[in-house]
Design brief:
By secondary structure, the protein is an alpha/beta fold. The chain has one domain: L-arginine/glycine Amidinotransferase, Chain A (5-stranded Propeller), CATH 3.75.10. The structure holds citrulline (CIR).
Length: 257
């Protein structure tokens, strides 16, 4: 288990039919989304990640957002039950690949609903957004599944954004990047907190790589804040993925392999 690996799935030709919850629908250039996704995968590979590239699923519009379908811990995997019914088939599509990576695979079951975008793991602590997509039943199931492995699970109420990781992600084991308008900072009181620039509410969603933070282009003030704190920052243009309410964490499931 010493290399960093990631599942990524190519953008579906049906991408323009994506689910939307908190933003309005704008025309999506699917070919450009596919190019941007390839550049995102390229950035992961360049950063030393061993990417497992999964094929596009023509029927499943949102399937590029693999993060929502599975949680990968060192000890086990947890297949989710996404909150949007249109996305549940995505879980079946990734299950066999997941079984190749972990011997223990648990499932979130009805009435639980859970999107991986709501799950923020920092060390042995797991924060789960109580969002439009993820409910208390799933959080209770996850807590029981993870307890034998020493993880503690905390439910975090949230508003005005799709997923917990739209509002807060980890920059390191002791620092989070947070938009305190969308989630209460008190839940993360055990961590140093760096607030996104107030003019860049969507900037909190970043991917923590071993040597750098990967974030979307278009958030220059927050990027400067990270650099001033000593983080090395890589950027990718994900404008077409953002029109589908996605960002950078959602396009990969990172795990130790
Ligand atoms: C959805 O509404 O499910 C997709 N259009 C966007 C999902 C983005 N996922 C994520 O940030 N983890």
């Amino acid at each position: 288990m010493n290399s960093l690996r990631a599942f990524c799935r190519a953008v579906s030709p049906a991408f323009a039919n994506c689910e939307l919850s908190f933003i309005g629908r704008e025309p999506i250039n699917v070919a450009l989304a596919q190019q941007q996704h390839m550049a995102y995968v390229g950035a992961l590979i360049e950063a030393g990640v061993d990417v497992i590239a999964l094929p596009a699923l023509p029927e499943l519009a949102d399937s590029v957002f693999v993060e929502d379908t599975v949680l990968l811990f060192d000890e086990l995997a947890v297949l989710t039950r996404p909150g949007a019914a249109s996305r549940r088939m995505e879980v079946q599509a990734i299950a066999s690949a997941v079984h190749h990576c972990r011997e223990t695979v648990a499932d979130i079951v009805a009435p639980g609903t859970l999107d991986g975008g709501d799950v923020l793991r920092i060390g042995k602590r797991v924060f789960v957004g109580l969002s439009k997509r993820s409910n208390q039943a799933a959080i209770d199931q996850l807590a029981s599944i993870l307890k034998p492995f020493g993880y503690t699970v905390t439910a975090v109420p949230m508003q005005e954004c799709l997923h917990l990781k739209s509002a807060v992600t980890a920059l390191s084991d002791d620092t989070v990047l947070i938009n305190p308008e969308w989630v209460q900072a008190a839940y993360f009181k055990d961590y140093q907190q760096l607030n996104v620039a107030s003019s860049e509410p969507h900037a909190a969603n970043v991917v923590r790589l071993p040597e750098a933070i990967l974030m979307p282009t278009g958030f220059p003030q927050t990027q400067d804040l990270l650099v001033a704190r000593g983080f090395s920052v890589l950027t990718v243009d994900v404008s077409e993925l953002q029109k589908a309410e996605g960002a950078v964490t959602c396009c990969s499931v990172l795990f130790n392999g």
